[in-house]
Every structure is written in C-alpha cells, then in structure tokens.
Write a sequence for this structure.
C-alpha cells in the first residue's frame, strides 16, 4: 500500500492523488502537521521539508513530478507519460508550466489576496492544529507574500496579475481547441498538473471570472475529474 504524505491544501498533493486514482492504485493519506516538519519529524519521507511525498514499499519519493514518474515506472498501466519523444517532452514542458508558473499565481491570488483566502482557511486549519483562526489568516498571508514576492509575481500590481492569468487561461483554452486532452489522446502528467493548479486558482474570484471566458476548459475539467478524480 502506498502512503501519501500531504498538505491537503496543496495543488501538488491533488496532482498526485489524481495520478494514483487514474492508475487505480490504493493509498493511505497522512496529513502532515506543518509545525512538526521544522522539528525534523518527517525527514525520512521528505528531506527537503516539502510535500507531497510517498512511501511505496521500501521506496520513498518526494516532489510531485518525481512521484508521477516513479508511479509510471512501477505501475505502467494506464500510462501518464505519452508515448513518443515529442509528446513526452511536450507533456513535461506543460507540467512544468503548471508547477513553476501557475503555482505562483494561485499562491498570490488565493493566499495573499485576503478577500479570496477565507474560502481556503478551514482546510489550512487541518495542517496547523492549535493555531487560532484569527492568527491563521495573517500567518498564511505573511508566509505566502514572502514567497511570491521573492519569485516576482507577488510584486506585480493586482490588475497585471489578473491579466497574466487571463492570458494563461486563454493559452490553456487554445491547447484544448479541438482536442480532449492537453497532449495525445489520453490523460497525461500535463492534464494532472494543470488541473490541480487551475482548481487552486478557482478559489480566487478573479480567476473564476477569467475561466468563464474560455470555451473548452469546463468540458476538459469534467473529463479529467471523471478519469482521474481528485480525492
Ligand atoms: N516541486 C514540488 C513543490 C512542492 C511544494 O512546494 N509544496 C509546498 C506546499 S504547496 C510545501 O511543501 N511547502 C512547505 C515549505 O516550503 O516549507 C512538488 O512538485 O512536489
């Protein structure tokens, strides 16, 4: 049995749960207690202190991308890495677009814009037991602002962030024009990574509005949810 160590609020955890579900692999979830990470409690499953990570028998893998490639190697069917060098490369590039670019937009809009954060607070409370709710909000805003400002998106004016996300969603819409999946003719690492970030972005009302301007994304979300459910 695979054990998934996760923060339930993390889009990277959603990406891994979807991959496990798509491959039909049973798994247990261990919800990581954030405060205990700094005390070294999870060093054996994540030396970086970042999650998700998995324990699969004697093997431990951390980083969602490495986890998906591990699952592909150990449980090949159904595949999530497209066949053919070009499609495999394209799926990798799209996965990285989601993980390394869209992620900073979802953090900025969902977690540093206070009017959007309320919807996510209860889920955060689960990994921060004992922190009173009124303390939780400033704690999340402070920590996330530090990260997003260091990366850069967090320093942009809000209207520019919204325009960027509109452009990202139009790009996603373009990729889906006339096709069921982002790469090839089946769900792949690209779909799993992108939908997880899109779902996190949807906590932000500005992103939800941008999504309504797309023509193909809603149908694709329903297809991915059906083939690779998030929970
Ligand atoms: N590249 C990593 C990113 C994982 C990541 O950034 N996870 C965040 C939660 S969304 C985390 O563990 N943050 C805790 C920290 O940075 O200390 C992956 O794909 O798994």
């Amino acid at each position: 049995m695979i054990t998934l160590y996760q923060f339930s609020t993390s889009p990277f955890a959603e990406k891994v749960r979807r991959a496990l579900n798509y491959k039909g692999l049973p798994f247990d979830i261990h919800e990581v207690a954030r405060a205990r990470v700094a005390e070294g409690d999870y060093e054996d499953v994540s030396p970086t202190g970042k999650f998700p990570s998995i324990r699969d028998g004697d093997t431990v893998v951390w980083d969602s991308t490495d986890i998906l490639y591990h699952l592909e190697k150990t449980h090949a069917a159904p595949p999530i890495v497209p066949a053919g060098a070009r499609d495999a490369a394209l799926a990798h590039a799209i996965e990285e677009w989601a993980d390394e670019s869209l992620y900073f937009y979802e953090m900025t809009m969902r977690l540093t814009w206070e009017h959007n954060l309320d919807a996510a607070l209860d889920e955060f409370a689960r990994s921060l037991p004992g922190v009173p709710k009124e303390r939780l909000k400033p704690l999340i805003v402070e920590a996330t602002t530090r990260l997003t400002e260091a990366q850069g998106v967090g320093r942009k004016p809000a209207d520019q962030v919204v325009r960027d996300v509109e452009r990202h969603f139009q790009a996603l819409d373009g990729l889906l024009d006339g096709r069921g999946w982002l790469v090839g003719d089946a769900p792949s690492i690209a779909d799993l990574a992108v939908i997880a970030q899109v779902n996190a972005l949807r906590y932000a009302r500005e992103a939800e509005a941008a999504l309504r301007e797309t023509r193909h994304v809603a149908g694709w979300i329903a297809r991915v949810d059906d083939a690779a459910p998030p929970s």
Summary: The chain has two domains: 2-74, 85-227. The chain has a mean pLDDT of 96. The pocket of glutathione is lined by residues 7, 10, 12, 49-52, 63-65, 99 (CB under 6 Å). The chain has ten helices and four strands.
